[in-house]
């Protein structure tokens, strides 16, 4: 849908980083006036809700510099250019948790912050996990701790704001709906 | 929690915009090595799930320049500095939908993209809406259309990716759980 389309007059490239790219677009508004839009370009991300055989959810705790604290999240990582999300999902699951799977179920996808970023998050679930014989290597700037929690424990973490991000809050609500069915 | 803390060595200010601020922090990792973190600072946002007396959900459709398309979302807006989220919630509800309320229920809050941004999203619900006598004014660069949908219709929009962002997907899943209770 192109309703209320804002046409680009010109684009100013501000920053080209490892994770994000920032540009500022000057646009024509539907009323003919102009405005500026600050836009973060991101290659997209994939998360997995990993459920063990004894019905626990596998989370990772990691320090998030923008928040200046560590939070507990479902495993996730960035899409590589041209990569299909299922491949990212399995790679991040293997690297971050030591489990692998050959069964992924698509749960949802959403733009994380459409007002200023094009980042899309794809979420999958797997309840067919297999422990890997040899754990895959993390990126060299990643430090994480693995936690296996029941859904009740995860909800408690959410109340305490130790679980506190869009994909993980969504995952917990999603598992609640499965439990209610 | 400060587990795996990354201490700042120095901060480079890159861009200071109307909506976002970009800085790059050089940090010390837990293993003593250094790395860079690209960080978006954002003042935070608030969304409302507005439910009418005849049990419809009030959405707004607007063009999202980062996506180069218009999507359908629950009403939302940025926190002003020092503002409590309930005030933002009512202002955005009034400006965007023409309804007001004096009953808000807190639903959840989450960081939208904790890997690179500190933006937090607070979500409220109100099923005690009153039409305003005189509709509040939108910001002068905002163009929106109001839609009142049943939950079934909203789910159909989600399948078609016309509803496709974190807060709105969460809201629909949340309303599903209320329906299941």
Automatic annotation (TrEMBL), chains A, B:
Alphabetical GO biological process terms: nucleoside phosphate metabolic process; ribose phosphate metabolic process
The cofactor required is: Mg(2+)
Q: Which GO terms describe its molecular function?
A: pyrophosphatase activity
The record's listing under SUPFAM superfamilies reads: Nudix
Q: Which InterPro entries match?
A: Nudix_hydrolase (IPR020476), NUDIX_hydrolase-like_dom_sf (IPR015797), NUDIX_hydrolase_CS (IPR020084), NUDIX_hydrolase_dom (IPR000086)
Q: Where is the Nudix hydrolase domain?
A: 41-171
Question: What is the similarity comment for this entry?
Answer: Belongs to the Nudix hydrolase family.
Q: What is this protein called?
A: ADP-ribose pyrophosphatase
Which species is this UniProt entry from? Virgibacillus phasianinus
Record lineage? Bacteria, Bacillati, Bacillota, Bacilli, Bacillales
């Amino acid at each position: 849908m192109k309703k209320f389309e804002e046409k680009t007059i010109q684009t100013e490239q501000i920053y080209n980083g490892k994770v994000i790219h920032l540009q500022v677009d000057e646009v024509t508004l539907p009323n003919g006036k102009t405005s500026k839009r600050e836009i973060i370009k991101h290659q997209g991300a994939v998360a997995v809700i990993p459920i063990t055989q004894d019905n626990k959810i596998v989370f990772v705790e990691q320090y998030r510099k923008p928040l200046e604290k560590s939070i507990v999240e479902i495993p996730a990582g960035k899409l590589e250019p041209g990569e299909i999300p299922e491949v990212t999902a399995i790679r991040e699951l293997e690297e971050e948790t030591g489990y692998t799977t050959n069964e992924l179920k698509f749960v949802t996808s959403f733009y994380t912050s459409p007002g200023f970023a094009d980042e899309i998050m794809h979420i999958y679930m797997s309840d067919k996990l297999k422990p890997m014989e040899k754990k895959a290597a993390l990126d060299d700037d990643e430090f994480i701790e693995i936690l296996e929690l029941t859904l009740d424990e995860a909800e408690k973490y959410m109340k305490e704001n130790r679980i506190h991000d869009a994909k993980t809050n969504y995952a917990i609500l999603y598992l609640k709906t499965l439990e209610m069915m």
